[in-house]
Amino acid sequence: xxxxxxxxxxxxxxxxxxxxxxxxxxxxxxxxxxxxxxxxxxxxxxxxxxxxxxxxxxxxxxxxxxxxxxxxxxxxxxxxxxxxxxxxxxxxxxxxxxxxxxxxxxxxxxxxxxxxxxxxxxxxxxxxxxxxxxxxxxxxxxxxxxxxxxxxxxxxxxxxxxxxxxxxxxxxxxxxxxxxxxxxxxxxxxxxxxxxxxxxxxxxxxxxxxxxxxxxxxxxxxxxxxxxxxxx
Length: 232
What we know:
Helix content is 65%, strand content 4%. Strands 1-3-2 form a 3-stranded antiparallel sheet. The longest helix has 20 residues, at 72-91. By secondary structure, the protein is mainly alpha-helical. The termini are far apart. Helix 4 (72-91) packs antiparallel against helix 7 and helix 5 runs antiparallel to helix 6. Residues 3-70 form the HTH gntR-type domain. This is GntR family transcriptional regulator. It comes from Variovorax ureilyticus. Keywords: DNA-binding, Transcription, Transcription regulation.
């Protein structure tokens, strides 16, 4: 593989997260990555340090590098940040050009084809990428990288907390946003986007990720040992 840089490796990892091919808590071995990309472990380490700075991986003493496992609070923060960024993108938009709408409709058509027959990774990636595509098409290129990272963070949360939000529902919500933009109703598009992000967040099974019997198990573990009593 030629022209591989630490940034190239980092972006491939983020892409794998967006496609839900890398799960929270998954180990990223330096040697395995080096062999995969045909580069030195030094370059891989630089890539992992980039990802660590962006909040996607963490290093554990004597164990190596792992994809982060976001907490419920981390997930809420990421969704809140997406609301601010994406609502802001749409709030400042004027009537979109036909080229913008055409590109977004092409993206939704790709989503539909993926839902109908593509593998789960392609489907997950396209649904996440819609939001980056929207920022790009609306002329907010400086926010594309920011939104890609935020979307990857919420994707990790969706993977960890087993989101019940269906792919077809996401696609339909994307289409409704684009339809509002096509009509020049940016206020409605903005509200639909906020609703969409809220729907995805609400579909997370945050409570299910915590063992409801954890406290009961601890009480049972630490309860005094019941010694047998002699028969009277």
